[in-house]
Amino acid sequence: MGEKALCLLIGYLFGCILTAELIVKHKTGKSVSEFGTGNPGMANVMRIFGFKTGAAVLAGDLIKTVAAVLICCLLFGRSSVLPSGKPLGQPAVLWAGLGATLGHNWPVWRRLKGGKGVAVTCMTIFLFSPLWGLVSDVAGMLVVFRTGYLPLGAVVITTLFTVFSGIFYGMEAFIPALVLALIMLSRHYPGLIRSFKGTEEKNAQYLKKN
Questions:
Q1: In terms of Cα–Cα distance, which of 155, 141, 147 is closest to 186?
Q2: pLDDT by residue (tens digit) across 31-65?
Q3: For the chain, first and last CA: distance in Å?
Q4: Which of 38, 67, 75, 140 has the fewest CB atoms inside 10 Å of its own CB, making it the most exposed?
């Protein structure tokens, strides 16, 4: 198994830890799937339980992403634990983050019914490139606050970063960045269509009010 595959696996295992499920289960004794949209993510939890609980979910999702990335960077970033293997280097961040996104969105223990991976993806691109990751994250956030549509902002984030990664980091970064963008698009496509039609719920109000 190559280093990229191992990064994906490690990331996937961390991604399968659904913070929303753990926090809501502790708080109510029920699964997060029984509340709101059923999505195990910050936005749904914040709508139902308020800012503090939503922030706790966000923190947990960010921490699991950092943990996955840190382990993969230690193992494969500057050296290789594989015989005759070459260090994966900085792209280890993106491959680990991609794995975490896959685990968060399609956790095997939950019959592949997970979240949408926005927080995990945002942290991944920031850890890979603090400058261009932050620019992409902020641009997406501004779109959300300007339009009120989370799906639109989420897709802007990964689309921008894919462009930046191709320009400044080459194909080694462009490929996993493109996969992250396609995942984000697939998870938010229905919401995007509703946003363009003006029928999507303006989720940003929950971030402003709570």
A1: 155
A2: 999 998 888 988 889 888 988 999 999 999 999 99
A3: 46
A4: 38
pTM of the model: 0.89
DSSP-based three-state secondary structure for 35 = coil
- For the record, the structure tokens of 61 come out as 């999702």
How many domains are there within the chain? 1
Question: Residue 209 CB: number of other CB atoms within 10 A?
Answer: 9
Would you call 203 helix, strand, or coil by DSSP? Answer: coil
In sequence order, the 6+-apart residues with CB closer than 8 A to the CB of 13 are 68, 99, 103
* Sequence letter at residue 2: G
Q: Which of 144, 109, 103 is nearest to 124 (CA)?
A: 103
- Which pLDDT tens digit goes with each residue over 139-152? 999 999 888 888 89
167 phi and psi angles, rounded to 5 deg? -75, -45
Look up the domain containing 29 and give its range.
3-209
Contact 61, 17 (CB under 8 A): no
The Cα 155–Cα 140 span in angstroms is 8
C-alpha to C-alpha distance for 69 and 81, rounded to whole angstroms:
16
